């Protein structure tokens, strides 16, 4: 059987030095950092990916290790256990020649002997990580460890799977990334949808706070296409949710003044350009309606102007003129029937902007599996 490398876990990353920061990164000095990930699919071997994309200086890795069910092995890079990732660079480990399965949780440990500076990071990791002093790579239990709630170095994984294995990339904002779902349970709506698929799987490239048209939290979606979709091995389908932050963040940032919002025509043009770019690469593209957010607790985020634009864009997405191969009606799956601009109470995470685990499940169950025929 011929095999090839297929992405089984991805973590989209943001720059710690952005002008407007919803989330705070951090650095590490002479510390061991452990972070976990869950594989969306399995194969006969696994390799780990790391990123220093937004680092201001080279990142020195003094050692790396991976643990999981049936795996307890050092990670090497071109045969050596130590490596330096240049500023702006990414790195892929040598293969760990052990079989891995869908749903398997791996813990990746990195010993960072120098001062990393603020690191390339993500706001919503699979689960909380840990940092401990010194080189504790082989320790079963970290001594004097501190919890790290954010993800660092864009840790991902590829698996060696049968050639022809196809996957989807979930691409977009916090509703894709799974903000407000329970850490460690892999309950974002793309993950729950992925567990429904009869073959293939979904990897997550969501960025909380991300926008379609404007750099703010992470590069805007159109700028992320090459790196976060086209470069993902095995991708054949893309599932998109975007637009909330284009409508809400301008008002939140400007509060108590009103923010300058994009028009419905601008968002429609951006979504069309995104679909065209992905279609040009031969991918199947599934769009989704913009989720509800009436009454969110974030000052200035909810405005009448933004709600009007959202309704207009959603009407276009549910019509006959959009360029997508299919539409997942995210809004209808979680909206309050009595007030469709608001999340149903049982699906609300508590902030009026994000869904909880049950809400994410409702979105996953609303998807027609024929949209993701992998």
From TrEMBL:
InterPro entries: GDSL_Rv0518-like, SGNH_hydro, SGNH_hydro_sf
Pfam families, A to Z: Lipase_GDSL_2 (PF13472)
Residue ranges occupied by any SGNH hydrolase-type esterase domain in the UniProt entry: 170-361
Gene3D superfamilies in alphabetical order: SGNH hydrolase (3.40.50.1110)
Protein name as catalogued: GDSL family lipase
Species: Streptomyces monashensis
């Amino acid at each position: 059987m011929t095999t090839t490398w297929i992405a089984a876990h991805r973590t989209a990353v943001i720059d710690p030095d952005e002008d407007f920061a919803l989330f705070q990164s951090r650095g590490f000095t002479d510390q061991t950092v452990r972070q976990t990930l869950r594989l969306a699919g399995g194969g006969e071997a696994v390799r780990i990916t790391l990123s220093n994309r937004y680092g201001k200086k080279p990142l020195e890795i003094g050692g790396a290790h991976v643990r999981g069910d049936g795996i307890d092995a050092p990670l090497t890079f071109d045969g050596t256990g130590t490596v330096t990732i240049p500023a702006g660079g990414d790195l892929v480990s040598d293969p760990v020649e052990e079989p891995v399965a869908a749903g398997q949780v791996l813990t990746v440990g990195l010993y960072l002997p120098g001062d990393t500076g603020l690191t390339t990071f993500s706001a919503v990791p699979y689960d909380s990580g840990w940092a401990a002093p010194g080189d504790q790579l082989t320790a079963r239990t970290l001594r004097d460890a501190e919890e790290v709630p954010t993800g660092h170095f864009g840790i991902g994984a590829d698996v060696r799977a049968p050639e022809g294995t196809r996957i989807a990339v979930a691409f977009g904002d916090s509703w894709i990334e799974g903000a407000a779902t329970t850490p460690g349970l892999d309950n974002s709506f793309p993950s729950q949808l992925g567990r429904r698929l009869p073959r293939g799987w979904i990897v997550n490239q969501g960025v909380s706070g991300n926008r379609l048209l404007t750099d703010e939290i992470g590069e805007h979606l159109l700028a992320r296409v090459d790196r976060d979709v086209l470069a993902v091995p095995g991708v054949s389908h893309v599932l998109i949710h975007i637009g909330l932050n284009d409508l809400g963040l301008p008002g939140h940032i400007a509060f108590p003044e009103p923010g300058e919002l994009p028009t419905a025509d601008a968002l429609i043009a951006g979504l069309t350009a995104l679909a065209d770019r992905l279609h040009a690469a031969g991918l199947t593209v599934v769009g989704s309606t913009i989720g509800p957010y009436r009454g969110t607790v974030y000052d200035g985020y909810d405005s009448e102007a933004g709600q009007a634009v959202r309704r207009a864009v959603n009407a276009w997405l549910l019509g006959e003129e959009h360029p997508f191969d299919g539409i997942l009606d995210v809004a209808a799956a979680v909206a309050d029937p009595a007030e469709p601009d608001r999340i149903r109470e049982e699906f609300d995470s508590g902030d009026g902007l994000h869904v909880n685990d049950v809400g994410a499940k409702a979105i996953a169950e609303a998807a027609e599996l024929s949209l993701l025929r992998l």
